[in-house]
Write a structure and sequence with these properties.
By secondary structure, the protein is of the alpha/beta class. The protein is built from 10 helices and 8 strands. Strands 1, 2, 3, 4, 5 and 6 form a 6-stranded mixed β-sheet that branches. A two-stranded antiparallel ribbon has the order 7-8. The structure holds flavin mononucleotide. Flavin mononucleotide (FMN) binds next to helix 3, strand 3, strand 7 and helix 8.
C-alpha cells in the first residue's frame, strides 16, 4: 500500500506514487469524503431548521370552488417544503398526526357549511393546541356590492368569530369564490336563489377566485410555521428565518 504522508515540496520525489495513480486516488478519496461531510452537515442543519411538519387543509365544499382553494393552499405549502394534504373535513378522523391545520368552508346564507363548522366544534380542544388558520370562500363579482360595501367584509360568515375563538385561530381570510349557474342546485336555498331574477345581479356567475392572493396567504402560513421556500435554501445562503 502506498504510504500516506505529507506531500513533499519536491514533486519528483513523489513521481513514482503519482505515476502509479495512487496519489490521484488518495486525492479523489479525500475530496469525496469532504463532499460527503459537507452534505451531511448541510442535511443536519436543514433538518434542524426545517422540522418535518404535517399540515392538514380540511375543507367543506358543495360545488368544488372551496375544494380548489384548499388544494391550491396544500400545493403551495408543499412547494415550501411542508408535508401538506387537502381533505374534506367530513372524512378526517385522526388529528394527532397533524402539526397544524388550515380549515376552510364555502359560505352559504352567511354561514359555514355544517361539515366544516361541525369539524371545528367537535375537535376544538385538539385544534386549539396546534396552529390553526381559517378561510371562507364566498363573494362573487367585484370588490364592492350594490350598496358599495366591501364584499369581503360583508361576506364574513356569522359563525367565524365563535369558530376562530374556539381554536385560537391565527388568522381568517375571505376569498372570492365561484358560482356556476348551470350547475345542479343543492338544497332549498340554492333552488330558490336560482329561480329569483334578483339573484342574478347579487350573485353573478363565474370564477372569481384570486389564485395569487390564495398562494400569497399560503406562503404567509409557511413562513409562520418557521419555514422558508426551497428557493431561499441554497448552500452558502443565509437563512432568512
Ligand atoms: C344559495 C347560495 C347562497 C350563497 N350564500 C353566500 C353567502 O352567504 N356569502 C357568500 O359570501 N357567498 C355566498 N354564496 C356564494 C358561494 O359561497 C360561492 O359560490 C362559493 O365559492 C361556493 O363554494 P363551493 O363551490 O365550494 O360550494 C352563495 C351561493 C349560493 C348558490
Amino acid at each position: 500500500m502506498t504510504p500516506v504522508g505529507p506531500r513533499p515540496s519536491d514533486g519528483r520525489l513523489f513521481a513514482g506514487r503519482i505515476a502509479d495513480g495512487s496519489m490521484e486516488a488518495l486525492d479523489s478519496g479525500v475530496a469525496e469524503a469532504s463532499r460527503r461531510w459537507l452534505v451531511c452537515r448541510w442535511d443536519f442543519a436543514e433538518s434542524r431548521r426545517r422540522p418535518a411538519m404535517h399540515v392538514l387543509v380540511a375543507y367543506a365544499s358543495r360545488h368544488g370552488a372551496t375544494q380548489g382553494i384548499a388544494e391550491r393552499i396544500a400545493e403551495t405549502l408543499q412547494a415550501a417544503g411542508i408535508d401538506a394534504e387537502a381533505r374534506p373535513a367530513a372524512s378526517v378522523k385522526k388529528l394527532a398526526e397533524y402539526d397544524a391545520f388550515v380549515i376552510g368552508s364555502a359560505a352559504y346564507m352567511f354561514h359555514w357549511l355544517k361539515d366544516a363548522a361541525g369539524f371545528v366544534r367537535r375537535n376544538r380542544g385538539a385544534l386549539a393546541a396546534k396552529p390553526v388558520w381559517l378561510f371562507s370562500s364566498g363573494p362573487l363579482g367585484g370588490p364592492t356590492d350594490a350598496q358599495g360595501r366591501d364584499q369581503k367584509v360583508a361576506a364574513i360568515p356569522k359563525d367565524i368569530v365563535e369558530l376562530a375563538e374556539a381554536v385560537h385561530a391565527r388568522d381568517h381570510r375571505v376569498f372570492f369564490g365561484a358560482y356556476d349557474r348551470a350547475g345542479k342546485p343543492i338544497g332549498f336555498a340554492e333552488r330558490f336563489v336560482s329561480l329569483m331574477p334578483a339573484a342574478k345581479e347579487a350573485m353573478p356567475a363565474g370564477d372569481f377566485r384570486d389564485w395569487s392572493e390564495i398562494e400569497a396567504w399560503a406562503g404567509e402560513i409557511a413562513r409562520d410555521l418557521g419555514l422558508v421556500s426551497p428557493a431561499e435554501v441554497r448552500p452558502g445562503s443565509t437563512p432568512t428565518r
